[in-house]
Design brief:
The protein is mainly alpha-helical and 395 residues long. The chain has 14 helices and twelve strands. The strands form six sheets. It has a two-stranded antiparallel ribbon. It has a two-stranded antiparallel ribbon with strand order 3-4. The structure holds alpha-D-glucopyranose (GLC).
Length: 395
């Protein structure tokens, strides 16, 4: 199987057109809409062979931007009655929450490969508005950490990092968890999705991956602002990056790793997940700290390292299950984040391990949503696009 050729073919197969808009669905059967961070992954993969399609993917995201600057995590270009998500969100055409802010990173990667100043100028204003929304509305009391108001905003809907706050047990079933998240959407809807109220009353987490991703994106935003000769935009990106870096160290770092915290009182949610490794992506660990994380956690077969990559949750956690949604299996976007981090620190052999296991999963089980870390068996959605990030793992 030629992984890269199949990845290109899948991105083409999952491409949809709606009027003047074009986007890619993560999985035709299970996820037949547009999703925010998925589309950023698609744009990164597409930038390797179809830069025009990558631009369309970003344009359709901004076409759905809300007046306050938020880019919603789901866009319902078409309504599927079998999956009536739009009823859940009290909204006709989009959801009412966001997802990890990967837009600036994707745009910078696209520009690096195929420079196009006209396109950057076209998207610059909505891009800035999105990051201003994240910095201002998701940190109303200036704690210098960006907050999420629903587990789905982390991109890891069912992660045990949120169990305490969600009031569920570590063995919670998929359906029960979904019900609790639906109740949360109802509560946030009751608060008119006013961010500060939702945080105070319903759900308020400063999540490690979300903030790490924000840091890398502020770096990319700064570079784009500099190309746009927008000194104020550059300062906005640089100042906030410094403040978030400092706040993450102050409030999240303990026992050699970063932990997601409760927004109300900075209480750490000490659940061992792949969030131990994502800080490598933003260079948050010193080299000495990173060496220790690699030795204690990354190369530890009892906890994270499996024959098919890095488990999403440590095998020693009570919530761990090799087939449980976001509670153990291998997801390929997290592997990609980890791979990028390992490369930037120079852990070449470990990065090769990730690249090899990534392709082993897809070779054995095709483009599935997630993989059993012990057997490599594919689970969840079929024709799922995250495996196309293989196109971006050749450096
Ligand atoms: C699942 C994932 C989320 C992703 C979506 C579409 O809900 O948890 O991260 O964006 O599927 O692929």
């Amino acid at each position: 199987m030629d992984l890269e050729a199949n990845a290109r073919a899948l991105l083409l197969k999952n491409r949809r057109r709606r009027g003047e808009h074009q986007y890619t669905v993560p999985s035709p059967g299970t996820y037949p809409y547009q999703w925010l961070w998925d589309s950023c992954f698609h744009a990164i993969a597409l930038s390797h062979f179809d830069p025009e399609a990558a631009k369309e993917e970003i344009r359709s995201l901004f076409a759905a931007q809300l007046p306050n600057g938020m880019v919603p995590h789901m866009i319902f270009w078409e309504k599927h009655l079998l999956l009536p998500y739009f009823l859940i969100w009290h909204n006709q055409s989009t959801s009412s929450i966001t997802q990890p802010p990967m837009l600036a990173y994707a745009l910078w990667e696209m520009h690096r490969k195929h420079p196009d100043m006209a396109f950057l100028k076209e998207v610059y204003a909505p891009l800035m508005r999105f990051y201003r929304y994240i910095i201002e509305k998701r940190d109303p009391w200036k704690n210098h950490l960006a907050s999420i108001i629903n587990p789905d905003e982390s991109g890891e809907d069912n992660s045990p990092r949120f169990d305490t706050l969600m009031g569920v047990k570590s063995g919670v079933s998929f359906l029960r968890h979904m019900y609790e998240r639906w109740r949360l959407v109802e509560a946030n809807h009751h608060d008119h999705f006013n961010e500060a109220n939702c945080m105070r009353q319903n759900f308020w987490v400063n999540d490690v991956p979300f903030n790490v991703i924000l840091l890398c994106n502020l770096q990319a935003l700064g570079r784009i602002a500099s190309l746009m000769e927008d000194a104020e935009g550059e300062r906005f990106a640089a100042d906030n990056e410094t403040l978030i870096r400092r706040a993450m160290r102050e409030h999240m770092f303990e026992d050699g790793v970063f932990w997601s915290v409760d927004g109300k009182d900075n209480r750490k949610f000490k659940v061992a997940t792949w969030a131990h490794f994502v800080p490598l992506f933003a260079n948050l660990y010193t080299k000495k700290e990173a060496d220790e994380v690699m030795e204690r956690h990354f190369r530890n077969e009892k906890t994270f390292r499996s024959p098919y990559g890095i488990r999403s949750v440590s095998r020693e956690e009570p919530s761990y299950g090799s087939n449980k949604f976001w509670r153990g299996p291998i997801w390929l976007a997290p592997q990609w984040f980890i791979y990028k981090g390992l490369r930037s620190y120079g852990y070449t052999e470990d990065a090769d391990f990730i690249r090899d296991t990534f392709s082993k999963c897809v070779h054995q089980s095709s483009f599935r949503e997630f993989f059993n870390p012990e057997t490599g068996e594919g689970r969840g959605a079929r024709n799922f696009t995250w495996g196309t990030l293989a196109l971006d793992m050749n450096d």
